[in-house]
From TrEMBL:
Organism: Alkalicoccus luteus
PROSITE patterns (alphabetical): HD
NCBIfam families, A to Z: HDIG
Name the record gives this protein: HD domain-containing protein
Parts forming coiled coils: none
SMART domains on file: HDc
SUPFAM superfamilies: HD-domain/PDEase-like
All residue ranges annotated as the HD domain in the record: 23-139
Length: 178
């Protein structure tokens, strides 16, 4: 089974639609944070990067009278649940290994506890990396969702990340250097 790359994900019509809705620049930045952070958490770098790229794919548009309604969003949002399902469907469609698709989907589901009545998630390392990558790119007032990046720039940066993922991991590089 060939690898599903970040560029494969980026080319999928639902990724184009839904990742752009929540901010393509944020998704790309989180993918890079996950690449950097995954060795610290001793977890699978590729799965962490894919989950970080897709983590906000479940966002819905909470508008009232043409204006974003933060209160509606805060009370009713289930973007992590919706995102986990969307990410899983897209990954399976693209031919991702089913066990990996499930792990990525769970990491998307658990990147936030905002949808739970009691905020008491105990995360596994892969899920922790995605939450940490998201936090690393957050800006006050949710401004990280509004930063812009061109499709060209996003594709260029994702291709770079695909190349890094295809080579030796950061952990392997550190071991080799010692
Ligand atoms: Fe996010």
């Amino acid at each position: 089974m060939s690898r599903v790359t970040l560029l494969d994900l980026f080319s999928h019509s639902d990724v184009q639609k839904y990742v752009k809705r929540s901010g393509l620049a944020h998704a790309v930045a989180c993918a890079y944070h996950a690449y950097r952070l995954a060795p610290e958490y001793k977890t699978d770098v590729e799965l962490a990067v894919k989950a970080a790229f897709l983590h906000d794919i479940g966002h819905y548009t909470w508008y009232r009278d043409g204006e974003w309604d933060y209160e509606l969003y805060r009370r009713n949002d289930i973007h992590a649940i919706k995102g986990a399902e969307r990410a899983h469907r897209i990954l399976i469609e693209l031919g991702e290994d089913p066990a990996d698709a499930k792990r990525i989907s769970l990491a998307v589901l658990l990147h936030t506890d905002s949808f739970l009545p009691e905020q008491s998630i105990r995360r596994e390392p892969l899920q922790e990396v995605v939450a940490a990558a998201d936090e690393a790119d957050e800006e006050p007032g949710g401004l990280h969702h509004y930063r812009s990046i061109s499709d060209y720039e996003a594709a260029y940066r994702l291709r770079q990340l695909d190349t890094l993922l295809a080579g030796p991991s950061l952990t392997e590089q550190t071991t080799a250097a010692n």
